[in-house]
Specification:
The chain has 228 residues and is α/β, with parallel strands linked by helices. It has a domain at 38-63 and 94-226: P-loop containing nucleotide triphosphate hydrolases (Rossmann fold), CATH 3.40.50. It is 36% helix and 25% strand. It has helices spanning 2-9, 51-58, 84-89, 106-116, 121-134, 150-162, 180-195, 207-213, and strands spanning 10-20, 26-36, 40-44, 66-71, 74-75, 91-94, 168-172, 199-203, 217-221, 224-226. Helix 4 (106-116) crosses helix 5 (121-134). The longest helix is centred in the last third of the chain and has 16 residues, at 180-195. The two termini are 31 Å apart.
C-alpha cells in the first residue's frame, strides 16, 4: 500500500529503467527518479547522453527495455492499450523539430489540442490569440510555418504545448532558436504554467538559463543519472 500511495503522489516515476536499441549497449542505464506534481526540473547533459531518449519514455513514444515507469499513478507496462491516449493527452511536448503542420496557420496549429479536446471556437478565439501575442507573434497569427523563422516556429510550438495547460510539460531545447530576451520570456511563461500546477521538465544545454532560474536539475552522463 505504501508503494501505491507513493506512485499516486508522483507525476512521473522511473524505477531501474534501461533502454537499448538493437544488440548494442544500453543508451539509458538504471534510471530511477520521481517528480512530484507542480515541480520544475532542468534536464541537462552533453549531446548523446540520452536526454531525448529519456523524454521519449516520458511521453510514451517508446517503451523501456527494462524497469518500471509510472505516469500519473499508472504503471505504463500494465496499462490497457485504450488507456494510453488519455495519459498522452495529459502531457504537452515541445519538440526540437517543432512538428508544426505547414498547411495550418499559427493560430490553427496552436488551437489543435483544444479542438481535439472538444473546445468551442469561441474559447479558441478567446485564448489562442492572447497566447500568441504573449509569445511575441501577434503579427503572425495567420502566418503558416513555411513563412516563419526558426525562432518564430519555436514560439508557435511552445504555445501549442501549453495552450491546454497539461499536467506534465516536456520541452526539448525550447530556447535553442531564439535570442536571450525571447528565451527568458518563454521561460517565464513556463514558470507561470508551473505555478498553476503543471510539472515542467526542460532539456537544455543553456547553462546560463539554468543558473538564472535556480530550478533543480536532472543530469545525464553516459546514459546514467547523476546528482546535481
Amino acid at each position: 500500500m505504501r508503494r501505491e500511495a507513493a506512485d499516486r503522489a508522483n507525476v512521473v516515476q522511473f524505477d531501474g529503467v534501461g533502454v537499448r536499441y538493437g544488440p548494442g549497449p544500453e543508451i539509458l542505464q538504471d534510471i530511477s527518479f520521481a517528480l512530484q506534481a507542480a515541480s520544475f526540473h532542468f534536464l541537462t547533459g552533453p549531446s548523446g547522453a540520452g536526454k531525448s531518449s529519456l523524454m521519449r519514455l516520458m511521453y510514451l513514444a517508446q517503451r523501456p527495455t527494462r524497469g518500471r515507469i509510472v505516469l500519473f499513478g499508472c504503471d505504463v507496462a500494465q496499462a490497457k492499450r485504450y488507456e494510453l491516449p488519455a495519459l498522452r493527452r495529459r502531457v504537452g511536448v515541445v519538440f526540437q523539430d517543432f512538428r508544426l503542420l505547414d498547411h495550418l496557420s499559427a493560430l490553427d496549429n496552436v488551437a489543435l489540442p483544444l479542438r481535439v479536446a472538444g473546445a468551442s471556437e469561441e474559447e479558441i478565439q478567446k485564448y489562442v490569440p492572447d497566447l500568441l501575442n504573449w509569445v511575441g507573434l501577434a503579427e503572425h497569427i495567420h502566418s503558416k510555418p513555411p513563412t516563419l523563422s526558426g525562432g518564430q516556429k519555436q514560439r508557435v510550438a511552445i504555445a501549442r504545448a501549453v495552450i491546454g495547460r497539461p499536467d506534465l510539460l516536456l520541452a526539448d531545447e525550447p530556447t535553442g532558436n531564439v535570442d536571450d530576451h525571447i528565451a527568458m520570456r518563454l521561460m517565464y511563461l513556463l514558470d507561470e504554467l508551473n505555478k498553476l500546477g503543471t510539472t515542467v521538465i526542460v532539456a537544455t544545454h543553456n547553462e546560463h538559463l539554468v543558473s538564472r532560474l535556480h530550478h533543480p536539475r536532472l543530469r545525464l552522463e553516459n546514459g546514467r543519472l547523476r546528482a546535481g
